[in-house]
Amino acid sequence: MPNKGLRGRLLLALAAALFCVLLSSYRLTLPLDRVVYDTFNELLPLPLPDDIVIIAIDESSLAQFGRWPWARERHVDLLRGLHDMQARAIAIDILFVEPYANYPAVDELLAREIASLGNVILPVFIGQASTGGELWEIPPVDVLLTAAAGVGHVHIDVASDGVAREVFLYEGVGTPHWPHFTLALADQLDIAPGKIPGLSDPAVLARPDPRAIIRSHANFIRFMGPAGTVPRVSYADVASGRVSPGLLRDKILFIGATAAGHTDNITTSLGQIPGVEVNANIFQALRSGKFITPAAGKHVALASFLAVLLMIVFSLRLPPRVLLMVLALSVLCVFIGSFALFGMAGLWVTPVPLAITFLLTYPLWSWLRLAMAVDFMRAQLKALESESKSLSFVQRSDSDVAHGGDAVEVVLAQLDRARQEATYNHELVRQTLEEMASGVVLTDVAGSVLLANQTAKGLLGMQVRDERGIAVLGELLRLEPQSGADIRLSIEGLIGPDDSFSIECRAPYRERDVLLQGALIGPDRLLMIFVITDVTELKRSEKKRVEALNFLSHDLRAPLTSVLALLESARDESTDQRNDEVLSQVESYIRTNLSYAEDFIHLSKLDHNAQPNKDLCDSTSLVDNAVAQIFHSASRRAVEIRIAYASTEGWLHCDRHLVERALTNLLDNALKHSADRSVITVETMVLANAVEFVVSDEGPGIDPADMGRIFEAFEQGRAATEGVGLGLRFALVVTETHGGTLRAANRQGQGASFVLRLPLDPGA
Length: 764
Description:
This protein has 764 residues and is α/β, with parallel strands linked by helices. It has 23 helices and 28 strands. The relative contact order is 0.06.
């Protein structure tokens, strides 16, 4: 499920990033983009300068001079009046593209005034002679073109929604060779920027269509405000001398129509604005460097892709409520960032694709998460149902299974049924735990008790009903260790899942002997479990066993040893050979019984976890001492014992007495199954990390049917004629106590081999 969730997050993030790039690259959110841009433009108006004035052909001017167009003598009179006002520059937003037919000489007069002023900018008109006809560039008439300080096109791009937001600073038929009207004005004032702002389409510029209008350096227009924001004076007032000369001194003058209903009015995001005032806004944005330049599409697409990818990959790990808030804040931050770029960097990056992507992410991820959750719950419920067929104690019927209806409701119903079943099983386990004869305490790794059954409470003297919150150390320290162990240190030593301890204690609260066992459990969350077992009766049985061993050790062996002493004395005093043979036979039986008693005593101690007394021993001496024990018995039957020593020394960390006795038992077993005058071989081999003792005989071998039971206590092979079946068992227990192995096999030909392997001492 975690891998599936990560895969789902990555796929959704990648899909969302590509979706955002698609929205941005193909401008699918253009209507919303325009709304946002217009809002930003309205919220951040350009500062209003104090040196721009519009000489407006307004309603009062039309009332005084008559309907438009006027005779060109009016413009000659206006320019004559502007001589004394000493304006910095004059931009006449009026087309003079045809000679004046009524009075041809007036064009000469107008050109003379324009040339005399030396700072007049005239417009160039680009249009079609007829609908669908050829495009024409129509500059002012030649005489005016020669006299003007500069000319430029006055075209303003109108978007598909009829709103003018964009201007191209260069434009022309075939090539963009005409600067914009305002750029020509800036050049005349020597304030044009060194690098012309705006975006151009390299593909169009590289292969222009000679019959089309080619444009470059696109910029979004920022406005100082709605129509009427830029200061105006009436054309009629200036022409009639009703304006003080100081009012227009050192001003940049824009002359154009502002009258309502005039065809030069342009629709903008701030409403209808006269074309002359739009040009005034363009000029102010140009000279103040406040144009809004659209960001390059490929850069926006790449930034959007990375932003969405990283944002969604990391945010989808959050809980649903937090995710919703994060995505909402992300949308807000996107708009704030776009607004900051708009106002501070003059860069237009639409926030709409990112915002839409983030807003769609939440429902999409919620749907995917719900689908993954339902699939996961179904899989888990199926696995739980499969497991609980053998583990659950609840009887089921077909009516318990939800069918039909909404998929989520079905899964929730199944989940509720599983919860009820788990609750029942939990309660049953809890009751079973309460009925256990051993005390059980479950704690967290900090030692706080999570669960304790009644047996544990009774043995520890816990007086509270609710065991949660109790510190287990304080409860377990009520116990009194019997072997010098430290309960506190043993608990602190529980670090890994394989750590455990076992301590014999006295429970003073109940005056009982207990065995305290502790370990770490849990596949995910580690918990400590303590089992307290009442071993009072077991200790009593152990005491009886020890008394029995003492009986064997002393009360049984002591008389046999005394009999041996008497036999030795009788043999010394006897001169009868026959009596000597009888005495030797009796001695053999007694020594055999003593050997049985020794094996039984040591075997009992080892079977009850008695720890051997280990020391550093040489393997060679172990073999020599074992052979010495059996040598006389072998000599009486003319059995030869051959020893093959290892070429290198092998040192063992072992209990010398026990290992020698184990080897002796193997030799004795070989002697029992060997014919007179045969050979027993003892071979020692020092390996990389162990020593092997191989005892081989020339007897009948081991019956395959007996191979699996010859190491069991009181078991013998079918060919055995003497013994009680403790020798091999003793040898196996000693070997395993020392961490070694003992195995038996038949030799090729005749006889059996026993291989006893013990680990080398690591420090030797």
